[in-house]
Design brief:
The complex is a heterodimer of chains A (105) and B (117). Chain A contains no helices and nine strands. Chain A is mainly β. Chain B is mainly beta. In chain B, a hairpin with a 4-residue loop joins strand 7 and strand 8. The chains are: A mainly beta (105), B mainly beta (117).
Chain lengths: 105, 117
């Protein structure tokens, strides 16, 4: 088992930068992936292997991972970025963080 | 384009059995594992388990082991998640997703399972 800890909520002003953390024991040694989940829609992969973006994801989304914390950064936040965000690792099984609700004010 | 298409919503009674499906297309079905992910109402994502369609090897989250069965039929490029005796607590949205070296870029659209007497 591997526990991933995320804040319940993060708020950001329109056009500013949001940072969502994902804590785990020595998580920096693992590959971390991030998903955006909106109500009624399937999850969307926004970052894979710490800091890689799928081709359809804007450059405003970036990731980092070191020590005991991985971070998803959303720059120039837009209203359409409002969603739940989940971090995930694979370790003989898939583990998700509890999810963070991003609110754009 | 790679697609995962899931079966439609289900309404069942406690104790009934159910099998939901996830059909992959436009890729080599036996090359990628398929995982199932649950989202209960108002809750987060939970990994149920996965199957390697190439050899039908499965492994499950301890939270789901013994309560569900994952299987696949390579001939029709379809993976399944099934229950023999549903509980009200199985009410949730279930997603299938293609495992791509530790992460999931392709997801099904989800199947809503409602269990109510």
């Amino acid at each position: 088992s591997y526990e991933l800890t995320q804040p319940l909520s993060v708020s950001v002003a329109l056009g500013q930068t949001a940072r969502i953390s994902c804590g785990g024991n020595n998580i920096g040694s693992r590959n971390v992936h991030w998903y955006q989940k909106k109500p009624g829609q399937a999850p969307v992969l926004v970052i894979f292997r710490d800091n890689n973006r799928p081709s359809a994801i804007p450059e405003r989304f970036s990731g980092s991972n070191s020590g005991n914390t991985a971070t998803l950064t959303v720059s120039r936040a837009q209203g359409g970025d409002e969603a739940e965000y989940y971090c995930q690792v694979w370790d003989s099984g898939t583990f998700f963080g509890g999810g963070t609700k991003l609110t754009v004010l | 384009e790679v697609q995962l298409v899931q079966s439609g919503a289900e309404v069942k009674k406690p104790g009934e059995s159910l099998r939901i499906s996830c059909q992959g297309s436009r890729y080599s079905f036996t090359t990628y594992w398929i995982s199932w992910v649950r989202q209960m109402p108002g809750k987060g994502l939970e990994w149920v388990g996965r199957i390697d369609p190439g050899d039908s090897y499965t492994n499950y989250s301890p939270s789901f082991q013994g309560h569900v069965t994952i299987s696949a039929d390579r001939s029709i490029t379809t993976a399944y998640l099934q229950w023999t005796s549903l509980k009200a607590s199985d009410t949730a949205m279930y997603y299938c997703a293609r495992h791509e070296g530790g992460y999931y870029e392709r997801w099904g659209q989800g199947t809503l399972v409602t269990v109510s007497s």
